[in-house]
Amino acid sequence: MSTVTTQTIVQSGSNKRARRPLGRTRRIPMGPRVSAFIVMGIFGLYSLIPMWWLLVSSTKSPENLFTTNPMWFSGFDLWGNISDVFAQQNGIYAVWTGNTIIYCIGGALVSTLLSAMAGFALGKYEFRGRKLIANIILAAVLVPAVLFALPLYLMFSEIGLVNTYFAVLLPALVSPFGVYLARIYAAQAIPDELLEAARLDGAGEFRIFFRLGLPIMMPALVTVFLYQFVAIWSNYLLPVLMLNSDTLQPLSVGLVNWRERLTEGIPYNITITGSLLAVVPLLIAFGILQRYWRSDLTAGGVK
Question: Which of 255, 251, 277, 252 lies closest to 266, judged by CA?
Fold first, then answer.
């Protein structure tokens, strides 16, 4: 009996050592962890150093801009530089900012909605030609957007849309990447059982999309919105081709024009400060919308 008891105790002890609590992850050795932190730190510095230089340079006067340490402060004339930015050319910078906000917010919102509708249809409905359409959209993702600039200019010039707001807004309404991402996310995140239950309750397809599809797809749609927002904000080639009037140009084109007109009396620090101000809305957008990436609305929808 003692032998059996001893074997039982040994076996139960080995089982306890073999079992691990659920959810406990294996610890990574110190060497790979340190290497990973070093690599991430290098990439972080690579990304932050230009921003630091932009911030430091925006606080300097024209006399200190090229005669002092470029990576450290020397005097603090930021508010004066900002005032000069908005006073330059009778306040044209405020007009450029308003144009950029119209292009970015209007184009990104409509593009996100269209991407969500197209992605939901491609991901959750069965119809003839669905795979062909999905392959065409995937092929459009791989084509550089710069190749469409000249054909769009020739087409818009024929219909009289050159040098108008629509010349920049209309191309921004379509995002092949947004449709592709929305399709993948809708197919994986939205349960078919949830849609069938809504149909049994008498909900129409548009109500299903707006009441169920959009909330569940929100993390992906935030990504689509930010991607399109940044793409429109930093776009230079299309506005410079389509727009001739200074009052219609966005910040990307206006700041380049200021840089090319240094000999006409526009100080270099004005362009630098304007570039810093142009980055602020992007940082605000990322700070406000990044929390949606961590949300998990699918579980609540299924329940």
Answer: 255
What's residue 225's pLDDT?
A: 92
- The torsion defined by the Cα of 94, 99, 102 and 103, in degrees rounded to 10, comes to -140
Specify whether the CB–CB gap between 60 and 272 falls below 8 A. no
Listed in sequence order, the DSSP H helices in 62-159 are 78-87, 92-101, 107-124, 130-142, 149-159
Q: State the DSSP string of 225-285.
A: HHHHHHHHHT--HHHHHH---GGG--HHHHHHHHHHTGGGT--HHHHHHHHHHHHHHHHHH
Tell me the C-alpha distance between 158 and 210, whole Å. 37
Query: Which tens digits make up the pLDDT trace of 54-77?
Result: 999 999 988 888 888 888 988 888
Give the burial class of 228: count Cβ atoms within 10 A of its Cβ; 0-12 exposed, 13-18 middle, 19 or more buried: buried
The domain locations on the chain are: 92-250+276-302
Domain 92-250+276-302 in this protein, CATH class: mainly alpha
- Cα 67 vs. chain centroid, distance in angstroms? 37
- How many angstroms separate the CA atoms of 91 and 78, rounded? 17
Nearest-angstrom CA–CA distance, 263 and 272: 16
| d(C-alpha 252, C-alpha 273), whole Å | 13
Backbone torsions φ then ψ of 26, nearest 5 degrees? -75, 135
Q: The tokens 């959009």 sit on which residue?
A: 214
List the chain residues with pLDDT less than 70.
Answer: 1-28, 262-264, 292-303
